[in-house]
Q: What sequence folds into this?
């Protein structure tokens, strides 16, 4: 064996084979309607014709019934915190100052929680049942993304009764 | 063995790119149509299994979203194969042999337009043997075609398969590519990847397909003429292309023997040959003579929904049996580069 390089008689035990693929993303008809609505400051869901649940964002189908959800319904941009998480751990790509709160928000008129950021409130004051409202980006800055809602903040309304969201926790 | 039959089949029209709809939106009407045609109430279906490929969407666990099209509440018995839906159908057939459920929904979907399909297929199925050269799926098929030509075949055989398939597709409203051109006209076309011309290659398709299986008495109850699965088998060849004889398909031959293809006359065969010359290899491996009608649907040269085209072959063959057009049909599905893995299914009407 020479000092210049590896022994040519040694078996190769590993190789590097970089993998790279590019994809288009296709949200589909229902999600496209939702994202176009967000661009205009509206939250559009879809109601299942069988179980009457309203999905926001809609995916074009009721996952429980397996049927198309053709009926479009607009829901409020305010709702109730059903569960939340206080983020204290820094991570790569983090943009928001710690600690901050991520919450699942049951929008008024919806039957599925929306995951978003909760701000303008101390983390220790956030609780289940808290009423919150959307803080939208200025109209000229809105795009077809949920980032057009900058965050949610407490609306000042009294807490929601547990009965109103017990099926969504 | 328990008698199991195909009692319903549905498919979407194959298109190059389904611009508006996502996978669930493509799949849902197809699943609903198959269930409706089966006569088995949706909530009474005993087993559900799908075939799809997460690499097509580039999203891990993308297949889970497909369940939105099924209605999986209250919880259902469900499974998935990261393969063509024909292998999902095989799993359903095995599941029905257990005897505790009498029906199964099998579905498959693929939206190839989201990425560069030849590269996606290469990275999906060959993470080791060809890396880091990454020859794409068409180039690999061209190497196989060259080996096949040098074994004593000619390009005219390829053009004849392509001309016949695309002409047959004129009668198939679900086909993507259909035209009436002679082999001579096709042979004047330029090479895409020598010795393959464009018509020797399958179209890139978006779409979905679904089949409902029923066992024994239930099949007779819901279908006037069930397409009974009298034999089904699948076999695979080695990963490394260099250790295979690419001019033959021993895995198809073995699967065909095990499925009992040669036990009686075959009226019609739906062969999943994504590249024209592969149909000749498959016919030979299955012992199908010139009197057997092959790919009246147009086959994979007319529509090739990735992860669905094999299931479509079974659905089309079963349709020929159920509509009285054939007494005995053979369906074949393939997966992997150069016909690496092959499934053969024999379907028969009641005697």
A:
């Amino acid at each position: 064996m020479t000092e210049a390089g590896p022994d040519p008689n040694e078996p190769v035990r590993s190789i590097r084979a970089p993998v790279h693929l590019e994809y288009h993303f296709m949200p589909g008809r229902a999600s496209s309607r939702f994202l176009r609505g967000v661009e205009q400051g509206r939250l559009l869901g879809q109601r299942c014709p069988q179980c009457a649940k309203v999905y926001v964002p809609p995916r074009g189908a009721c996952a429980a019934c397996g049927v198309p959800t053709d009926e479009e319904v607009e829901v409020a941009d305010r709702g109730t915190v059903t569960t939340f998480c206080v983020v204290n751990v820094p991570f790569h790509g983090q943009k928001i100052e710690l600690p901050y709160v991520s919450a699942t928000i049951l929008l008024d008129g919806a039957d599925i929680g929306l995951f978003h950021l909760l701000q303008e409130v101390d983390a220790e004051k956030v609780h289940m049942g808290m009423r919150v409202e959307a803080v939208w980006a200025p109209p000229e800055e809105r795009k077809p993304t949920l980032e057009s809602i900058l965050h949610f903040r407490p609306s000042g309304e009294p807490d929601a009764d547990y009965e109103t969201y017990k099926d969504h926790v | 063995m328990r008698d199991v039959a195909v009692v319903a089949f549905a498919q979407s029209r194959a298109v190059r790119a389904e611009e508006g709809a996502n996978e669930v939106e493509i799949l849902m009407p197809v699943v609903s149509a198959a269930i409706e045609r089966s006569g088995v109430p949706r909530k009474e279906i005993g087993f559900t299994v799908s075939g799809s490929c997460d690499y097509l969407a580039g999203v891990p666990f993308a297949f889970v979203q497909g369940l939105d099209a099924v209605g999986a509440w209250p919880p259902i018995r469900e499974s998935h194969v990261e393969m063509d839906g024909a292998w999902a159908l095989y799993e359903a057939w095995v599941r029905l042999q257990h005897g505790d459920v009498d029906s199964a929904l099998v579905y498959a979907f693929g939206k190839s337009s989201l990425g560069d399909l030849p590269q996606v297929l290469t990275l999906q199925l060959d993470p080791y043997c060809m890396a880091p050269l990454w020859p794409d799926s068409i180039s690999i098929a061209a190497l196989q075609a060259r080996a096949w030509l040098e074994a004593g075949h000619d390009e005219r055989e390829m053009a004849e398969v392509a001309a016949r398939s695309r002409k047959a597709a004129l009668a198939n409203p679900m086909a993507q590519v259909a035209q009436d051109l002679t082999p001579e006209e096709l042979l004047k076309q330029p090479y895409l990847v020598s010795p393959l011309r464009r018509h020797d290659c399958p179209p890139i398709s978006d779409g979905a397909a679904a089949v409902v299986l029923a066992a024994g008495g239930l099949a007779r109850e819901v279908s006037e003429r069930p397409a009974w699965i009298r034999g089904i088998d699948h076999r695979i060849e080695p990963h490394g292309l260099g250790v295979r004889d690419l001019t033959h398909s021993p895995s198809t031959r073995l699967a065909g023997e095990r499925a009992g293809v040669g036990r009686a006359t075959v009226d019609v065969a739906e062969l999943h040959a994504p590249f024209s010359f592969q149909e000749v290899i498959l016919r030979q491996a299955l012992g199908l003579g010139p009197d057997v009608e092959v790919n009246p649907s147009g086959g994979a040269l007319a529509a090739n929904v990735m992860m669905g085209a094999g299931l479509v072959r079974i659905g089309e063959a079963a349709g020929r049996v159920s509509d009285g057009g054939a007494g005995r049909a053979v369906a074949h599905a393939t997966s992997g580069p150069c016909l690496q893995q092959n499934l053969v299914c024999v379907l028969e009407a009641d005697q």
Summary: The longest helix of chain B spans residues 23-38. The longest strand of chain B covers residues 206-215. The CA atoms of residues 137 and 298 of chain B lie 21 Å apart. Chain B has twelve helices and twelve strands.
